[in-house]
Amino acid sequence: MALPELAARSALSKLGARCCTPLRNQSRPANGFLQTQQRPFHGQRSSPAAVDGGRQSVARSRSAPQSYATMKRLSSGFAQTAISSVISLANPQDTKSGGARSPVLRPDDLFHSFSDSPVPEIRRRAAFIKQHASCPHPDHQPGTGNTAAAHVNFECPDCGIPVYCSKEHWADDYEAHLEVCDTLRQINEDDHDLRSGRFFPEFEYAGPQMDEALVNLTNWDTFLYTRQFQAINDDRSMRQATRLLTYPATIASVLHELSPYSFGPGGRITVEGLKSISALRYTLHPPKSGGGQDVKSLRLEAPPVRLFILGARAESSLPRDVWVQLAHLFPNARFHLIFIGPESMANRDDEFPLPPRTPSNPFGAIVEDRVWPKMKISTIVDYYHNIHRTGYFYPYDPYFDCFVLFHPGLGHPASSHEWEETIPMLLETKAPIIATGYTQTDMERDVEWVKKTSAGELDILMEPGENVFRSLRWDINDMDPQDVSAGNWGTWAFRGKRYETTHKSES
Ligand SMILES: [Zn+2]
Ligand SMILES: [Zn+2]
């Protein structure tokens, strides 16, 4: 096993005992994330001066987003808490450590009210929700002149989650609550399941695809079956597994030649989409080289496809086996995953301090080049637009480059200003941009915002809609527990408008 993978996993194993991210972040000072143990990463040693320089530069880039980061978590930070928990539990060191963790909850004993949960972490989460979420009863609406705003304090007996300020308001608004109550109960049980101490076979990942076996990307069932995932037999395991696999599967489902999204009547891929995606597929599905041993049949290996994952948060700390699934889906391609964003080292405290910024590594990237023979991962704690301006990744090539924005909150009032500089640069590259949203509303707000800010200088490559490979697990927003969302619920794609510069020779 490659060293970087070990390092990444050891980082993940630290997550187990953490409370919800919002609490943790709130209690930390600005840049507090840097004051963790100063262990050289991957054996690289840094001089104190270099470390200081690195910290300062990160601190600078961090000072602006700090308020944003907190605010976004507090206002729209759906799912970051939940996914951090899943990630920590998906870590093989946690799940396979034999006697280290003994089961605390039986599979038939997963429902507990959050406040009276046997799991301390969930009790702390209940306290957080009660402190921050407001009662949704119409009486509290501003302008109605009825009742002042009030925090939630009453836990619905059916879902066990604090949802109203009082039993009276809960009973009075019961019909509205019923729309989400079943889902909330499922979330409650899934959260307890995750901390039940059971063995998690669903976090064992399938190895390379057999040469002659085609993967079927029609839906999660066919994907897991044809990829020979073992032991995902029930809905709960499916929900836990897809919470992580949604990241590589969402990317693959758009780019793969066997994509479930089609072009033509009823399909979501547009004419422009077909052009862009075909270019990438040309690189991702190269013809077999013939494989001869003699000099004549040697072929130059194509450079890797660069996937720029911007605004990266929890996804950058996914177990590497999850990302390697992408490599298994494109066995003849090479990938370079580049996570970029001020929060791209979230959950990876053990890997601090960051490597110093040097002429050969100007952005202090953490490089994991042995994740898989055909996959390399780099992580950069900075804004993409700061890097773009330097020309560091230039030139961009539609056959080799693609941007991915997982729940970027482009149109969210708390985060859209952060994308204002970035989006025009992405459009300028003319490389495809795949984006996702937590809910339909979240995604549509992003689409509207991009259309408005780009003043029409964009082509939609894939129409917005539900993601075939969304997380099947639902998450609650701790600031508003009835606001239910799913990781990568929806997906769409776009790029900067391309104008034909050559005359068509045919047709
Ligand atoms: Zn109320
Ligand atoms: Zn309920």
UniProtKB/TrEMBL annotation:
Region: Disordered, residue numbers: 26-67
Domain Mitochondrial splicing suppressor 51 zinc-finger: 135-194
GO MF term set: zinc ion binding
BP terms from Gene Ontology: mitochondrial respiratory chain complex IV assembly
Residues annotated as domain Mitochondrial splicing suppressor 51-like C-terminal: 298-477
Keyword Metal-binding among record annotations: yes
Domain of life from the UniProt record: Eukaryota
Biased composition (Polar residues): 26-47, 58-67
Name of the protein described by the UniProt record: Zinc-finger of mitochondrial splicing suppressor 51-domain-containing protein
